[in-house]
Amino acid sequence: MRGRITHLRRDERGVTLIIVGAGFMALLAATTLAIDVGMFMMARSEAQNSADSGALAGAVALVFNDYNNRSASGPAVQSALGGARANHVVHGTVSVTPADVTFPTGPTGQNNRVHVTVRRTAQRNNPVPTLIGPIFGVPTVDIMADATAEASPANAETCVMPFTIPDKWSEHQTGTWDESDTFDMYDNKGVALSNPDLYVPAGQPGATGYNPAVDTGLQLVLKSNNQNKTAPSFYNPWDLPGSTGASDYSNNISACNTNIVAIGDPMNPEPGNMVGPTAQGTADLVAKDPNAYWDTYCSCVKGSAFGKSPRVAIVPLYDPNYYETGKHNGNNASLKVANYIGFFIEGLNGQQVVGRITPVTGLVKGGVPIPDAAFPKAIRLVQ
Questions:
Q1: N- to C-terminal Cα distance for the chain?
Q2: Exposure of 63 by Cβ count < 10 A (0-12 exposed, 13-18 middle, 19+ buried)?
Q3: What are the pLDDT digits (tens) for 330-368?
Q4: Whole-angstrom Cα distance, residue 85 to residue 88?
Q5: Cβ atoms within 10 Å, residue 348
Q6: Could you say which of 151, 158, 295, 302 is the most buried, measured as most Cβ atoms within 10 Å of its Cβ?
């Protein structure tokens, strides 16, 4: 018996099984821990996507809904909350409240930023659960992320219309500016008026041009310029870069010309009134989204088959002072981009183009000044 006990004590058979079993458990723990770490990294990435989406949605609402409403129930805050919550983190909805949406001032001094913080934390009762963490006393982890987007002035556009109208001015002849006014600096004998109409470009203090906060929803009925007057309702055809003739002109209305046009760029007038090509291009454009319409209640486009209706055109605005001064000095018509407006094309009235002014996004082109009062806004993440 004693010998048998000694033999069993020295017998090493089965040790390998114990070692393999222990190693397997260690490998399993390490693998599960790696899964946890990978899940945490994925959760952090998803949280960042959620915060980014919320900040961008808030900035979009500032531009297209109400730039001045930053209340908890306002469109900017509510859009930010909706954008953030639409992006789940590890199959769960993030916690984001109106207090998590703030509007910091940017480095230019403009209050044009939206900051959003999203959370899946124990404090908000929605932490991310772990797989192996409970063994080490860590059943959950906190995940949070934040992002900042801004709606800053833009100085360039693409998909620009091949016709242009004057930017808005301060009317001194008839009182308050309206769509029937004309821009007057000189009398019919070419003598400077004592109290001429005043145009101040977007890059200068007291700019007089179109403003989305004031002019959204304003209806304009555009007709070909008779070359004798500068009026909100008169459009001037011009040649986009690389385009000439009626066919190109019509196509540039119904389709997107991808050339980038910046504020301050000259616009070469197109010979002729282009009434027919304007009507044809407009009809083709309307046919692309026939059910879209302007809703006067929300001052926005409804019924579109697209996220953004192709009937929202980018119309360049020319500097009326530059134009009239050139004509007065005996020069040919000189057009220069002063700004842009978004213009939802409602349709044609005969051969006249009927539409509504609407906010629009734009581009930032390097090396070109960016006027503070630029009508279009560039929406981008800055943090």
A1: 79
A2: buried
A3: 566 679 999 999 999 999 999 999 999 999 999 999 998
A4: 7
A5: 15
A6: 151
Partner residues linked to 377 by β-bridges: 153, 361
**Interatomic CA distance for residues 101 and 70, integer angstroms:** 9
How far is residue 345's CA from residue 331's CA, in Å, rounded to a whole number? 33
Chain CA centroid to CA 253, Å: 21
- Side by side, the strands of the sheet bearing 377-381 are 101-102, 113-120, 143-153, 377-381
The one-letter amino acid code at 318 reads Y
Q: How many CB atoms sit inside 10 A of residue 130's CB?
A: 20
Work out the number of other CB atoms within 10 angstroms of the CB of residue 40: 16
| Token pair recorded at residue 307 | 């996220």
- Concatenated DSSP letters of 68-130: S--STTSHHHHHHHHHHHTS-BTTBPPB--GGGEE----TTS---EEEEEEEE-TTTT-PEEP
Query: From CA 213, how far away is CA 177, in angstroms rounded?
Result: 16
For the chain, the helix, strand and coil percentages under 3-state DSSP, each to the nearest 5: 30, 25, 45
Residue 263 contacts residue 155 (beta carbons within 8 Å): yes
Model's pTM, two decimal places?
0.83
Count of C-beta atoms within a 10 Å radius of residue 2: 6
Q: Which amino acid is at 217?
A: G
| One-letter amino acid of 162 | P
Q: List C-alpha distances in Å: 174 to 26, 60, 170, 179, 207.
A: 87, 37, 10, 12, 20
Of 50, 52, 73, whose CA–CA distance to 120 is shortest? 50
d(CA 30, CA 77): 43
Separation CA 171–CA 193 (nearest Å): 13
pLDDT digits (tens, 9 = 90+) for 115-145: 999 999 999 999 988 877 777 677 888 999 9
Whether 355 contacts 343, CB under 8 Å = yes
